[in-house]
TrEMBL record, chain B:
This is Sodium channel modifier 1. GO terms for biological process: mRNA processing; RNA splicing. GO terms for molecular function: zinc ion binding. It comes from the Eukaryota. Residues 271-304 form the Sodium channel modifier 1 acidic C-terminal domain. It comes from Zingiber officinale.
Length: 1215, 308
């Protein structure tokens, strides 16, 4: 089996982010690392974050930093990754890609203890960069420029110190003195040698300054001083004239200003009033804002509160450190303050947000200061505050992120053309069920009912220079309706259009006259109201029309074509006639190219399965230039011109070209390139869009011409980051559409379907999926489908949280004690996304934004939820009591028992992980569905001795994995009855799959075990297991002998029981063999073989075999912790395998990954890659320069076009 | 049994015909090749019966029409013969399949599911195949062929075994399937058998079970698949000690009684299995007792009572 791996949805989570001026000029961009992806984001004028570039680096990005050489206008990006190399990147606007400027190797690859890459620090003046490991090693590179102003990098200077752990590294701003780097270090050499543990208890963290002597080209430890043992983060304080220099040390509960030769200035971080006393406050992320005259820091704590930190200073002496409450937003991994007044918050989990500053915290608020710090016998006096609504920030955009995907199922619950992907995402109060549909999201702006069933719709401007459309014209079977677009849309009668006849086409002609084509003629409405009418000769009627601004071609019944052109006086003149062999099925003229008089090509589709290109040049007017035969009669044609552009919005170049698109009656979209000179057709591609013949319409997307295809669902063909994408829209089937532009909606679409007129815009271009979000209460763990009722049952549980009742009680108490609105403006209208949707609507501080109040770590809150996915309504929500938390779920039908389908939920009571994993008790709850599956009723609950982490139905009974025991339960009157068990599993059972009488058990750290249940002996036998100890995170049954699994190191693998072994086991008639055969070293007698192995580079949490397109082959779909969704498609022909493996090989050679990790080494990070071809690498082929593309294509004996087509085909097989 | 005239007037050239024929199963191919060799001597009309197919070929005419129509376009567009030939090959495979399914000579090697898919009954893991083409491809695979030969072997050995036992059972009294008169004959025939009566009985009992439901033993995953070899419709020639016994014809009523008796047995076995699965065990006297590691409901049925 060979597989093609393709990422469908890129990771959403952000590991680290930095902002700077990467493009050059005045704009500010943000670079984010999403695991193995590097993205360049920029807020546009409307405040929406746009992704300029997203590139897969095939390595784990661990740290990012940005620097600028003095006097330069552009920033460079430094990337610390697992490649054992330091990479400096420069963004190239012309090619819209990152260029590797320098790549310096310093160590082995992989995330290791002592190989640098975890921390990066840059000298604020851009003279040096330090790259540090978690332990021991620190390297300093000197950055400079050569005579040609190119960036140069020195060989590394060592600043190692053995037996030290590094917590944080920053560059100290000391103007143009020698560069200094500060780090928080802990020396463990004594602790290692002291067996009593006394030294370990006394270990002290130090703040150390390393000075790079540029003259001597040498790094020395300049200064080291003990710091608070809770110190975890350093922040650079501006210096060199702008400020006092030095660093802020963020420690547990404190922020301390430190500098060499300067006394400590310490202030306490204010705490929540309801925070348990034993919990500290840690700063998790920091951002600095600098202007010429002032600077301040924003520090966010682990509870989401942002504090503004300011320093009062006179010269180099800091007199006071103030910490003022700023606002509360979800906890971030990093924050970026842009000079343009935006704050980008990269959330730890869930959606990221872009905020705009309303104020910079000048207003009165709770403040802790070093001046008022009081020390008592019990320590420093804390300062308390209560979070409030947003005051200084306002959220203006959201960046969706599925991180972390906890569970996923691909089901077609809504009976749509393609299945939906149901994912459980997020954590704690920000968790949600997200329903992903392949396709672009739609924002429906208006739907209005029409008096009849419309057949067509057009929009038309009054003048070519108008920005917006003036009329919407709707054609019915026997009438035409004209609507004028203004503040509202209303019917008008003074437009000059003939309303007693259906229309065939309505468009703007020339600069400011209108044209209406109806079956009996052409009506030309001049700007002054004069009307010219052209009547069809004899009894012929017009059947088809093609027109652009200056040219009109009509097809009469019988197959006669008449060509009109607009002359200089604005008259429509008949130019030429042409008799076609039969009736015309469709025709189209390309838009008039800029600076030209006319378009050269007319495309005519006939019912004899041909498409002809006719010339419209005066020299060879109506001569056939080329003929293309197609598989079915064409229904609709569209000539799409891609304009030549260089360095556009996305920075890429596009040569001009004309594409002929044809919607065929068999539902296929046929696409071919038209030669601009000869009109010859080449490079044909076809794609099945749906059961209805696609109708093609021109639209505008981001100022470029795009194509709408209306088949059994609508599709949009547009150009994104230099590639043409054809993506379905998540909308109902439409009849006819036209582009629409008004002051409310610049780039919309107006469409008719059934009896309604719909106006919508397309959102989030470039995405594969669009999502519908249903908020949940706690971290979702697993979910199952109740197949008959199509309800989803979700189990959610959170550690260290209060249950809903406790929270409610605490809140009431708090409000009563404080008096309503004591902490100011509790209801200031800052309604963010509401929390649970049911009971917290009127709450001004939604938990989703502010988080749940924190409880002790051994407290659990958990619930079971029955959800109707169609409406998103929760029909039943059971909160578990007594510190119980749900961990596993399955539906089960016990044989010949009266209840029908029951729900089994495995729970644990009082589960603790630290200092030792302990559990008070485990339970299996059995619930009955009542009220047509809308609600649950507890039947009984059975205590078990461990946590049931896996449950599964098996032959009318329930299989449960409880710790290392696999047990078969039958339903009893009062409890579950233990019928059979096998205790021979190595650690903990985390997954159970069954097929016929085979049971596939996944162990948490020893991969799969294949078992068999023998009814005649009532015994469970393990007959095969894996020889590799895998830490299993996800499992899925593929076929009788094959299982797919994923381990926690980011690998996906398939194991298969060899055929002869399988036969032997199935044909063992006496059953003696399975019973008496023994393996070696407590293993099973037989071993499964690994047939597929691939390193994803991200922890896969769920696997499923499914097909995302109707009639498509099945592939394995996976979801990961970082929120990416990918697919593994099995190849069906050897030829394809050869082609793609060769392409992959060439790509590896010609296009090595950006962060310096070898591609092959990355994909084989833990086990050698086996039989999987990396589609993500292959899909980087179009980003190569053309000559390189040609070179690779030559070596594969193909053209670049063919390779692109192959890549497109492979993707279209999956989605 | 479908009779499909394949090429009444063959308009294909010799090369294409060969391609088409190569789609046949190996046996058909062999016959075909043999037939090709014979072409020189056989008269113009050749009628062949392959698995119920009647292939009529007209050699003389085919070469004539070939000459007339050779530059004809394919009906599938283009001038490539490949597609048409491919299509016919599929069609032939299809037809071959349906004919072999109706073939009563051997048990069917596959079953058509209600979903329209096919399940191969020969291979031990019973792969499900989407369409006849895939099935035919699968049938040509080495695994399938290996499984087939294995199955055939086991079938043969089973038949041998049952023959042996039938011959033995002919000697037994009481539960024997045969009529009274035949019993007497047998008693006369084998007066000094080395087996005691009880053993004879046991043998015949087990033999009946075995022959009637050869799959009962591994009822685990293929319980719903039954092979259709029962004594009722096959005539055995029992040979023991060199004396040939004429084939027995079992009457309908006897057959029915046998079937009833068998189903009863099956039911009982199923019940027993249910009790073992529920955690009951049997002691050496055949008494049922509860496994101490298994939990039971308070009102659970006692097999000692139920199975009395």
């Amino acid at each position: 089996m060979y597989l093609y791996s393709l990422t469908l949805q890129r990771a959403g989570g952000i590991v680290c982010a930095t902002n700077g001026n990467f493009v050059g000029g005045k704009t500010q961009e943000i670079v984010v690392a999403r695991g193995k992806n590097l993205d360049l984001l920029r807020p546009d004028e409307s405040g929406k974050l746009q992704t300029l570039l997203s590139v897969d680096v095939f390595g784990a990005i661990r740290s990012l930093a940005q620097f600028r050489l003095t006097g330069s206008q552009k920033d460079y990006l430094v990337v610390g990754s697992d490649s054992g190399r330091l990479v400096i990147l420069e963004y190239s606007r012309e090619h819209n890609m990152f260029h590797k400027v320098h790549q310096e190797t310093f160590g082995k690859s992989g995330c290791r203890r002592i190989v640098p890459g975890q921390f990066l620090a840059v000298d604020p003046k851009g003279r040096a960069v330090m790259v540090a490991a978690c332990e021991k090693q620190k390297l300093v590179y000197v950055l400079n420029r050569d005579a040609a102003a190119r960036l140069t990098i020195s060989s590394p200077l060592e600043a190692h110190k053995s037996h030290t752990i590094t917590y944080s590294v920053v560059g100290v701003d000391c103007g143009f003195d020698n560069p200094i780097f500060a780090s928080i270090e802990l020396d463990y050499s004594e602790s290692d040698l002291d067996p009593t543990g006394q030294a370990a208890a006394d270990a002290q963290k130090h703040l150390t300054f390393y000075e790079l002597d540029l003259g001597l080209n040498h790094v020395s430890r300049k200064w080291s001083e003990p710091v608070d043992n809770g110190a975890n983060l350093l922040v650079t304080v501006p210096g060199g004239g702008d400020g006092p220099s030095g660093v802020l040390v963020c420690a547990e509960n404190f922020v301390i200003y430190k500098n060499q030769g300067h006394p400590d200035v310490r202030a306490v971080i204010p705490r929540h009033t309801d925070l348990p006393a034993e919990r500290g406050v840690l700063v998790v992320s920091a951002a600095t804002h600098r202007q010429k005259s002032m600077f301040f820091f924003l520090l966010q704590t682990e509870y989401g509160d942002i504090f503004k930190v300011t320093l009062e200073h006179e010269g180099d002496r800091v007199t006071e450190l103030k910490i003022k409450y700023f606002d509360t937003i979800p906890v971030t991994t990093s924050m970026c303050v842009l000079k343009t007044g935006f704050l980008f918050a990269a959330s730890e989990f869930g959606n990221h947000a872009l905020y705009q500053f309303q104020a910079i915290g000048e207003a009165e608020d709770i403040e802790a200061s070093s001046a008022t710090l009081m020390e008592t016998d019990e320590g420093f006096q804390p300062v308390f505050f209560q979070p409030r609504g947003l005051k200084n920030l306002v959220r203006i955009d959201l960046v969706e992120s599925l991180m972390p995907i906890m569970d996923m199922k691909i089901l077609n619950l809504f009976e749509e053309e393609t299945p939906q992907v149901f994912t459980l995402c997020g954590r704690g109060p920000r968790s949600s069920l997200r329903i992903l549909r392949p396709g672009l999201a739609i924002n429906e702006m208006a739907v209005s009912q029409l008096p009849g069933t419309p057949s067509a719709v057009w929009t038309v401007k009054k003048n070519i220079n108008d920005e917006f459309d003036a009329y919407i014209v709707v054609s019915f079977v026997n009438a035409t309706l004209v609507l004028s677009i203004g503040e509202t849309i209303e019917e008008v009668s003074d437009s000059g259009f003939l309303d007693t006849t259906p229309s065939l086409s309505v468009s703007l002609l020339g600069d400011e006259s209108l044209m209406q084509v109806h079956p009996n003629g052409i009506r030309h409405i001049r700007e002054d109201g004069r009307i010219n009418e052209w009547k069809t000769p004899g009894k012929k009627t017009i059947v088809k029309v093609g027109s652009n601004r200056l040219q009109v071609v009509i097809a009469l019944s019988g197959g006669e074509l008449i060509y009109f052109e607009m002359d200089l006086t604005g008259q429509l003149m008949e130019v030429e006639k042409h008799e076609m062999p039969g009736d015309v099925a469709c025709l189209d003229i390309a838009p008039v190219p800029e600076g030209r008089q006319r378009s050269r090509f007319l495309a005519v589709g006939s019912y004899d399965n041909t498409i002809r290109i006719l010339s419209l040049d005066p020299d060879d007017c109506m001569q056939i230039l080329s003929v293309q035969s197609v598989s079915s009669p064409p229904e609709s044609l569209l000539l799409l011109e891609v304009m030549a552009s260089t360095g556009g919005e996305d920075g890429a170049d596009h040569p001009a070209s004309v594409f002929l698109n044809a919607g065929l009656q068999n539902g296929v979209l046929f696409r071919t390139v038209v030669d601009m000179v000869t009109g010859q057709l080449s490079d044909t591609r076809s794609r099945f869009l749906g059961l209805r013949a696609p109708k093609l319409f021109s639209a505008t997307v981001r100022g470029r011409q795009a194509m709408l295809c209306l088949s059994s669902r609508p599709w949009l063909g547009y150009i994104h980051q230099g590639h043409f994408l054809l993506t379905p829209l998540s909308y109902e089937a439409l009849e006819y559409a036209a582009s629409f532009s008004s002051d409310q909606c610049a780039e919309g679409v107006v469409a008719v379907a059934n009896e309604a007129l719909r106006i919508f815009t397309v959102e989030r271009l470039g995405e594969t999926f669009n999502e519908t979000v249903v908020p949940l209460r706690y971290t979702p763990r697993k979910f199952v489908l109740l197949p008959k009722r199509k309800h989803l049952i979700v189990i959610e549980s959170d550690q260290g949280a209060f249950t809903a009742e406790e929270r409610e009680a605490a809140r009431k108490e708090c409000l009563e004690a404080a008096g309503m609105g004591e902490n100011g403006n509790a209801n200031n209208g800052e309604q963010m996304e509401n929390g649970d949707g049911d009971d917290e609507k009127e709450d001004a501080l939604p938990d989703e934004q502010y988080g749940y109040p924190k409880a002790e770590s051994d407290r659990w809150a958990s619930c079971i939820r029955v959800l109707d996915p169609k409406t998103g309504n929760t029909t039943c929500l059971l909160e578990l009591q007594d510190n119980e938390a749900a961990f596993s779920i399955c539906t089960v039908n016990f044989h010949d028992k009266e209840y029908g389908t029951l729900l089994a939920v495995g729970t644990a009571k009082g589960l603790q992980f630290w200092p030792k994993r302990t559990v008070a008790a485990g339970f299996i709850h059995i619930y009955r569905f009542v009220e047509e599956g809308k609600s649950l009723e507890l039947l009984h609950k059975t205590q078990v001795e461990g946590v049931p982490l896996a449950l599964h139905q098996f032959q009318g009974r329930l299989l449960a994995g409880i710790g290392p025991v696999l047990r078969l339960y039958d339903l009893g009157k009062r409890r579950l009855l233990r019928k059979c068990e096998n205790k021979l599993f190595p650690h903990t059972i985390v997954s159970i799959n069954t097929y016929r009488d085979r049971i596939y058990v996944g162990d948490i750290q020893e991969s799969f075990h294949y078992c068999k249940y023998r009814r005649d002996e009532n015994q469970l036998y393990i007959f095969a297991d894996d020889s590799v100890p895998r830490w299993l995170t996800a499992a899925h049954h593929i076929d009788f002998d094959t299982m797919a699994g994923a381990d926690k190191f980011g690998n996906i693998y398939f194991v298969r029981l060899p055929q002869d072994l399988s036969d032997e086991i199935e044909e063992d008639p006496t059953g003696g063999k399975i019973k008496w055969e023994q393996g070696k070293l407590n293993g099973a007698p037989n071993k499964v073989e690994e047939i597929v192995q691939f390193h994803i580079g991200d922890v896969v949490t769920c696997l499923q075999k499914a097909s995302l397109i109707p009639g498509g082959g099945e592939c394995v779909i996976y979801g990961t912790v970082m929120g990416s969704v990918g697919a593994l498609l099995p190849f069906i022909s050897r030829e394809d395998v050869d082609f793609f493996s060769h392409l992959e090989m060439h790509m590896r050679q010609e296009h090595p990954p950006l962060c310096g990790r070898d591609h092959m080494a990355f994909r084989s990070a833990y086990f050698p890659v086996k039989d999987v071809i990396d589609g993500d690498l292959c899909e980087q082929f179009p980003t190569l320069p053309p000559d390189l593309q040609r070179k690779i294509a030559d070596e594969l004996d193909r053209t670049p076009g063919e390779i692109l087509k192959k890549l497109e085909d492979a993707r279209n097989k999956i989605i | 049994m479908a009779c499909v005239p394949l090429f009444l007037q063959s308009a294909v050239d010799a090369k294409t015909r060969n391609t088409i024929f190569s789609a046949y199963t190996s046996e058909a191919e062999e016959i075909n090749r043999k037939e090709d060799r014979d072409l020189a001597v056989v008269p113009p009309f050749v009628e062949l019966q392959i698995f119920g197919f009647v292939l009529i070929r007209d050699r003389g005419q085919s070469s004539q029409s070939q000459r007339q129509q050779s530059p004809r376009m394919s009906t599938f567009g283009g001038d490539s013969w490949g597609r048409e030939a491919h299509h016919r090959k599929r069609r032939v495979d299809d037809l071959m399949l349906s004919s072999s399914s109706g073939d009563a000579a051997s048990s069917p090697s596959f079953k058509k599911l209600s979903s329209g898919k096919f399940v191969c009954l020969v291979c031990p893991h019973n792969p499900i195949l989407d369409n006849p083409l895939m099935l035919s491809m699968h049938n040509k695979g080495s695994r399938h062929i290996a499984a087939e030969s294995k199955a055939r072997e086991s079938e043969l050995s089973k038949r041998d075994e049952s023959k042996k036992r039938l011959a033995l059972s002919a000697d037994s009294t009481g539960l024997s399937n045969s009529g009274n008169s035949r019993q007497q004959i047998k008693n006369v025939m084998f007066p000094n058998k080395p087996l005691i009566q009880k053993t004879m009985k046991a043998i015949s009992e087990s033999q009946c079970k075995n022959v009637d439901n050869p799959n009962a033993a591994n009822a685990g995953h293929c319980s719903n698949i039954t092979t259709s070899s029962s004594i009722g419709d096959s005539n055995y020639t029992c040979t023991t000690d060199g004396i040939s016994v004429p084939p027995r014809n079992i009457t309908g009523t006897a057959n029915k009684i046998l079937a009833d008796w068998n189903s009863e047995l099956l039911e009982r076995r199923e019940k027993e299995l249910k009790f073992t699965a529920a955690g009951w065990k049997r002691d050496c006297h055949g008494k049922w007792y509860r496994d101490e590691n298994v939990e039971f409901d308070s009102d659970e049925e006692d097999p000692n009572m139920v199975l009395e």
